Structure formats: C-alpha cells, structure tokens
Amino acid sequence: MKKKFIIIIVAIIMISGFYSITKAENVSDLQAQKEQIKQELNNANESLENIQIELTDALEAISKIEAQIVDGENKLQETTAQIEQLEKEINETQEKLEQAEKNYNSQKEMCEKRLVALYEMGETTYLDVLLNSKSMTDFISNYYLISEIAEYDNELLETIKRQKNKIEEIKNQITQKNENLKVIQESQEKTLIALENSRTIKNSYANSLTEEEQAIQKQIDEYQAQLNNLDTQILFLTQGDGNTEYIGGEFLWPAPGYTTITSPFGTRFHPILHVYRTHYGIDIGAPLGAPIVAANSGVVTTASYLSSYGNAVIIDHGGGVSTIYAHGSEILTTVGAVVNKGDLIMKAGSTGLSTGPHLHFGVSVNGKYVDPLPYLKGSS
Q1: Are 110 and 152 in contact (CB under 8 A)?
Q2: What is the mean pLDDT of residues 335-341?
Q3: Looking at the structure, do residues 69 and 25 belong to the same domain, yes or no?
C-alpha cells in the first residue's frame, strides 16, 4: 500500500557541499561566522522546492523506527550526562566524607587527651581549686578559669557529636547517590538493548526494500541530512560569546494570553515534511499578529528570516543560554538591542515551514537544544 505525501524541503545551496562550522578564535570571528550563516540561510530560502514522493508501508515503518532510534540516542546522551554528573558528585561527596572523618578523629583525639588529663588529676576537683584560693581576686580568677575549661569541654563534646552526625549524613548521601547511579545505569543498559533491537529491525526492513524504495529512502536520507545541517546552523546562531553570566530567573511565557502547546519538545511526525523528526522546541498556538515577548532579559543576536524558521529572533541571556522565537509575521526588534523580560519583540505568524499562525519557542544551553518547559516553570 502506498501513501502519497508532499514534502517541502529546504535545498541548501552551498559551495563544496554543506557549510562547515569552524571554531571561533574570538568574539569577532564568532560574529563573522554567524553573519555568514545568516546569509547562507537566506539564500537557502530562495531554493524551496516541492517534491512529490510516495511512501510505502516499509518506508513508513523505517521512518517510525528511525524516530525510535533518535529518541533512544537522545535518551542515551541524557543518561550518560546524568551518570557523569552523579559520579562527579559521588567523588566530591566522598572527599567531604574523608575530610569530615579527619576532623572527627582529630576532635576525638583531643577529647581522649582531656579525659586522660582529668583521670590523672585524681581526687582533685574544681571545688578544691576554688576552696584553696588565697584571696577573693584569686577565687574569681580560678572560677573564671574553671568556667572556661568546662565550656571548652562542652564545646569539644558538641563538636564531636556534630562531626559524627555529619559523617552519617554524608554516608547516607553517598548511599543514595550510588542507588540513583545504579538505577540510571540499568536504564542506560535497557536503552542500549532497545537501540540495538531497533537498528536490527530497521536493517531487516531496509534489506527487504525494492530498488524503487531504496532510491526513495536514499532521497529521504539526503533531505534529512540537509535539514539536520540547517538545524545545526541555526543552533550555532544561538551561541553567545560565553563571557557573561546567565541573567537568571524563571522565564516569562513568550505568548501572553495563549497557552495551548500544539506540539511539544521531542520527536514528532512533522506536519509538513511528513517524516519523523526531532522538534527542538515547543509550538504555542497564537493568532496572526499576536504579541510575542522576550522570555527573559538579554541581547538580541539575530532578528531576520531563517529559512524554515521564517521570521525569527534569537536572544542571548548570558551563560550560554539563548532563546529562539520563530515563524513570526513581523519582527519588532533589531540585532544588538538590549531587551528586558516581557518586551515586545515579534508578532506571531506562519512564515517559513508552518501549517498556520503559531510561535515556535526554543531554548539552547551551551550549544544544545533543551526542553523549554522547565525554564518556563522555573525548574531548570
């Protein structure tokens, strides 16, 4: 059974294949590269072409399996990062435990010396010292000295008690972190098995494709590669110079009055391309011309047409955190503008690859797209 789909693809016209992103040596180089990429994206927009293809059941099955593979690889990256973070925390906590035990042993040794000293004093008591005072001045001086010694002994015992409690607390933290690590490692192992199974199934389908289906699959793979390259370039535009601190705070909802999320972050069946692709943001339903505001304060680094994203604005919030607002009908800010949280920056639209008026809102952190919802909920 064949299913017909119209796929609108952005053909990237570039010299010597795809544009190669090189590491910038300084801020000026970074800005120059960004300007070059913006120009390439604008040129790419002039090369939109409608391609009629037919997807068989086998090709559609491969597309779904590829989506599972992408999800698995993303999950694998997340669990790997979680494992590295937990191992780092465990090592740091272990160092705290060693220091706490060292302090405890030191305080315990001092306490033991005090007990030995008290034992060696024999029948001599603090009261004897006071009664043997030769004058009132001597009495007061002895009383003060005894009070200081008693207070020191009490503080020493309290310190030992606190150190012991701290050691138990740190040990509990290490135990909990190790348990969490074990759970994540088991999850990662299951993901690896699921990935291997998905790849085996995909290869099985691929081996059964007809020559015509193989040609179509190759064409789709090329389109996917071009679109992935486009996503990489746009992601590159979101990177700041890395010399500033994140502005901080919870993000403001970027489409005031319109809260329906029509497409979440993650893998989805693209409404126009009709292939499974990762959606690097959330789509918020909003009518044509609806106000779009800055989710947080920052500096506008891009305010132009970005091919499949249409009219787009990118804001650098410092610390490697940027937000992107896409498919606008009109851009209301300029590159270099300093915007405050809630400032009007764009009007909702349907430019670029879009099925209707809405806002595509994305967040990138240190050159990687992340789910925007935790930032909007203040739980990032």
Answers
A1: no
A2: 92
A3: yes
Exposed e or buried b for every residue in 219-253, given b needs 16+ CB within 10 A?
ebeebbebbebbbebbbbbbbbeeeeeebeeebee
User: Do 163 and 104 touch, CB atoms closer than 8 A?
Assistant: yes
What is the number of other CB atoms lying within 10 angstroms of the CB of residue 254? 25
Asked if residue 345 belongs to a domain, the reply is yes
With beta carbons less than 8 A apart as the criterion, state whether 209 and 59 touch: yes
Cβ neighbors of 323 (< 8 A, separation 6 or more) are 251, 254, 294, 295, 296, 298, 314, 315, 317, 361, 362, 363, 364, 372
| First-residue to last-residue Cα distance in the chain | 46
Q: What is the pTM of this model?
A: 0.53
Q: How far is CA 13 from CA 19, 22, 33, 229, 252, in A?
A: 9, 19, 17, 12, 37
CB atoms within 10 A of CB 281: 23
CB atoms within 10 A of CB 91: 10
Query: Distance of alpha carbon 90 from its chain centroid, rounded?
Result: 21
Nearest to 309 by CA among 287, 324, 297, 291: 324
* pLDDT, tens digit, 9 for 90 and up, residues 289-313: 999 999 999 999 889 888 778 899 9
**Are 315 and 300 in contact, with CB atoms under 8 Å apart?**
yes
d(CA 352, CA 254): 19
Number of domains in the chain: 2
Residue by residue, DSSP assigns 255-302 as STT---EEE-SEEEE-TTT-SEEEE-SEEEE--TT-EEE-SS-EEEEE
Distance, CA of 293 to chain centre: 22
C-alpha distances in angstroms, 88 versus 22, 74, 83, 85, 94? 30, 21, 8, 5, 10
Same domain, 38 and 176: no
Phi-psi group of 324: left, alpha or beta (phi > 0 → left; psi -120 to 50 → alpha; rest → beta): beta
Beta-carbon contacts of 183 under 8 Å, excluding residues fewer than 6 positions away, are none
Is there a single domain that holds both residue 229 and residue 362? yes
Task: Give per-residue pLDDT as tens, 226-259.
Answer: 666 667 777 777 776 656 778 778 899 999 999 9
- Per DSSP bridges, beta strands 330-331 and 2-10 are unpaired
Task: Tell me if 28 sits within 8 A of 243, measured CB to CB.
Answer: no
Question: Same domain for 362 and 221?
Answer: yes
